[in-house]
TrEMBL record:
Broad class of where this protein is predominantly found: nucleus
Cellular component GO terms held in the UniProt record: nucleus
Compositionally biased intervals (Low complexity): 39-53
Protein's name according to its UniProt entry: Uncharacterized protein
Biased composition (Polar residues): 20-36
Chain intervals with Basic and acidic residues compositional bias: 1-12
Annotated region (Disordered), positions in chain: 1-54
Keyword flag Aminoacyl-tRNA synthetase: no
UniProt subcellular location: Nucleus
Domain of life, per lineage: Eukaryota
Keywords: Coiled coil, Metal-binding, Nucleus
GO molecular function, one term: metal ion binding
Amino acid sequence: MGFDKNGKDIRISKGPAVNESPNQGPQSPTSISSHDTAAEAPSSSTSATSVTTPQISQFTEEIANGYRTCLRYFLPPQWIMDKDAITAMSLQELAAFPLDDFFDHYEKGLRKLVGNFQTDATLRKQEAEGANSKLSAVRKLIAKLLKSINEEFDIDPECDGEQVDELLAACVKQAMHDQS
């Protein structure tokens, strides 16, 4: 259904609407203006207002539900309300909601969380560096031990790379083979 733009009076035409294509279907209720419903209703201003009031109430409630969803999603830890209380808020309570304070709490919580992650990452990095230092020291000891056992081994006693691991594995394999 659409309006006949070529007509002298505003009337509902029986053909497809101007913004409507055969594949697209009719417009959604949210895209219909108040003029659309007013043209179908009697010309009295009171009845035109009563027709649009439910639509306004519906839109207001949809916006309020979206607002509640956002508040629940971004709810900071230790906030003064829980998710159920936010869900039950009236339009007046939503309008008076302390949004600045809410986002301040959210930001503080987010900063604390990021800070905890950074602290944890720093600790993990220090642990990894400590483990690498221990591994390097053990490899140097093994290289010195292998060199002292057999002077023919071609290894630097200060070597701390994978070459030490490979040489140690070869020595162990040889020792196991000799015992059999």
